[in-house]
Fold this protein.
Amino acid sequence: MGEQFLNAEVAGDGVATLILNRPDKRNALSIALRDAVSDTLRAWVEDASVRVVVLTGAPPAFSAGFDLGEFGDPALARTIRHSSSRYHRAVWSFPKPIVAAVNGPALGGGFDLATLCDLRLASPEAVFGHPEIKFGAPPLFTPLRWIVGDGIARDLCLTGRRIDADDALRIGLVSRVVESSGLLDEARAVARQIAEAPQRTLEATKRYLAANQGFGFEDSFRIEHDDVFDNFLSGGVDAEGAR
């Protein structure tokens, strides 16, 4: 799949694993690799055997970002834009939870990929940063801001400075740091814990987690409280108690 740039497997426990597999290129996100991720996630949307996805990179990196070699070819400009747009939307809009196991550097587009996932675990070797700003490419700001807040996101995006796993844990970018030898197993254990919930409930929760950013209290409350009661907890009782 994707010229073997992506390894995908589905376990019997409902946890699927995606491994970015260009270790010689530090898992740089080429057109082929982005398309493979997009195609796989789209196929898994309707696959009932996939309940939660774990995403990681083949050592020694999570992903060094986009494949800069492709950016040097003007003939690929339109293809790169289309592939990138499709890929980012495929990850962000995937209706099932994605757990990132960040096993090494996550830079540029690799940092973006980690922020598009629902949860992030990191090994001590993980490094996060947006060096692309130094080369004239504005970083993707909004998903990072939602996770760590405006101030820290502005700092990281404007300076391009890199932070290690401990700093990532301190600012809430990752939820835990796990030794590299046990990182993937821990990420899968977290995924299995997530999968204990009914799939319909997981997908509804992910929808409002993804869609409610920037809403005021009333709009968010209507989705997270009123719609939950109407669709899950009260058998269709509306706000006035009528069926």
